[in-house]
Amino acid sequence: MPTADDTPLSVSELNRRARQALEQDVGDVWVEGELSGVSRPASGHVYFTLKDERAQLRCALFRTRARFVAAPLRDGDRVKVRGRVSLFEPRGDYQLIAEAVQAVGEGELLAAFERLKAKLDAEGVFANARPLPYPPRHLLVLTSPTGAAIRDVLAVLAARWPLVQVTLIPVPVQGREAAPALIAALGLLNRQSALDPARDAVLVTRGGGSLEDLWAFNDEHLARAIFHSRLPVMSAVGHEVDVTLADFAADRRAPTPSAAAEQLVPDRRELLQRLAVLENRLRRAQRARLDTEAQRLDHLRARLRHPGEVLAFRRRQLAQLEGRLHRAMRVRLEAARHEERQWRRRLALRSPERLLEQADRRLGLARQRLHQAMPRELARHRERLAALVRELQAVSPLAVLGRGYAILEDDAGRVIRRADDAHPRQRLDARLGEGRLRLEVLARLEEP
Question: 111-266 — its CATH code?
Answer without folding.
Answer: 3.40.50.261
